[in-house]
Design goal:
Number of helices of chain A: 0
Strand content of chain A: over 45%
Low-confidence stretches of chain A: none
Mean pLDDT of chain B: 94
Oligomer: heterodimer
Largest sheet of chain A: 7 strands, mixed
Distance between the termini of chain B: 39 Å
Structural class of chain A: mainly beta
Largest interface: A-B, 21 and 21 residues
Strand content of chain B: over 45%
Number of helices of chain B: 0
Shape of chain A: globular
Order of helices and strands of chain A: EEEEEEEEEEE
Helix content of chain B: under 10%
Structural class of chain B: mainly beta
Order of helices and strands of chain B: EEEEEEEEEEE
Shape of chain B: globular
Number of strands of chain A: 11
Radius of gyration of chain B: 13 Å
């Protein structure tokens, strides 16, 4: 009964080759987030959606884009992956952006860039 | 001022012992302080959280102690078990909604 599902679990791409990571949720939450987590570091927020409203963090590179076609699904597109983009990408959801209570994370997609 | 500082970076505790992880913040607008537990290869999971109107919250073996005047909060894991071995992140958020994570503590509980 996984609530935030990320696919694929592992993704290998080549330097500069576009890649898309996907996330789906069964919680019907308004807010969906994408985090980047590098080894032994805290998760770093890339952007979030409140319903269809997209909110980009100021320091998120333009190379990272996102789409949310409906409440349940959200995609992370990396247009031209560099070696420094190798990381775990975590999708998360919550019912409310302001209170931020009970952020539910998926198991992540481990991205390798060759 | 947006930082949350977490210590120690790593911690080794014997089975049955008490694990203590500390966090400090500067932004007085923070009003929500969760702790997340992350096992290798998994996403973080909410463990326990507190708001500043109470000084302590206990859930099973896990307790958050909160000191508003010192702007510090800590996680205590009583009777630590090998299954508690994981990375623990403290975090804080306020009226901006953005969750600010600490740097993480890797806990190893030895049998």
């Amino acid at each position: 009964d996984a609530m935030v599902i990320q696919n694929p679990r592992y993704q290998v791409t080549q330097f500069g080759k576009p890649v898309t990571l996907s996330c789906s949720q069964t919680l019907n939450h308004n807010v969906m987030y994408w985090y980047q987590q590098k080894s032994s570091q805290a998760p770093k927020l890339l952007f979030h959606y409140y319903d269809k409203d997209f909110n980009n963090e100021a320091d998120t590179p333009d190379n990272f884009q996102s789409r949310r076609p409906n409440t349940s699904f959200c995609f992370l597109d990396i247009r031209s992956p560099g070696l420094g983009d190798a990381a775990m990408y975590l999708c998360a959801t919550s019912s409310d952006w302001v209170t931020n209570e009970k952020l539910f994370f998926g198991s992540g997609t481990q991205l390798s860039v060759l | 001022q947006q930082q949350v500082k977490q210590s120690p970076q790593s911690l080794i505790v014997q089975k049955g012992g008490i694990s203590i992880i500390n966090c400090a913040y500067e932004n007085t607008a923070f009003d929500y302080f969760p702790w997340y537990q992350q096992f290798p290869g998994k996403g973080p999971a909410l463990l326990i959280a507190i708001r500043p109107d109470v000084s302590e919250k206990k859930e099973g073996r896990f307790t958050i102690s909160f000191n508003k005047s010192a702007k510090q909060f800590s996680l205590h894991i009583m009777d630590s078990q090998p299954g508690d071995s994981a990375t623990y992140f403290c975090a804080a958020s306020g009226n901006t909604g953005k969750l600010i994570f600490g740097q993480g503590t890797t806990l190893q509980v030895k049998p």
